[in-house]
Amino acid sequence: MRTSKRGIGLIKSFEGLRLQAYRDVVGVWTIGFGTTRGVKAGMSITKEQAERMLINDVQRFEPEVERLVKVPLNSSQWDALVSFTYNLGAANLESSTLLRLLNRGDYVGAAEQFPRWNKAGGKELAGLTRRRAAERAMFLEAA
Fold this sequence. Notes:
This protein has a domain at 5-14 and 55-140: Orthogonal Bundle (Lysozyme). 55% of the residues lie in helices and 10% in strands. It has 7 helices and 4 strands, in the order αββαααααββα. It has helices at residues 5-15, 47-68, 75-88, 90-94, 97-103, 107-111, 126-140, and strands spanning 18-23, 29-32, 119-120, 123-124. A two-stranded antiparallel sheet has the order 1-2. Strands 3-4 form a two-stranded antiparallel ribbon. The longest helix has 22 residues, at 47-68. The radius of gyration is 15 Å and the shape is globular.
């Protein structure tokens, strides 16, 4: 399965675009639409490079979601899970109650786990609370 334009839009809307490298709230060097891989202090990119980095990152996370999820997904559920994994990493999805419930076929129970993932560095962040609410709403949509 591939992430839709709507799914990419969700990721972009919460990551925002930064063309200069910066440290995120937990101190990780980040650039573009939330890319962290290979980012160093002082890096600068163009919007086109940021777009390519985003697509490369999404394409890196899609096989992880595919590997971990054992039940059928509609496109909205897929997009929500790719956004979640883009933000938190495959290891967090793999160890989550969200995934355990989902793989048991409890889609509603899985959806109710999204809001629990709204902390960074041990602190609740309003942006993550909004992102998880948007991902949960997308996940619950019928395709």
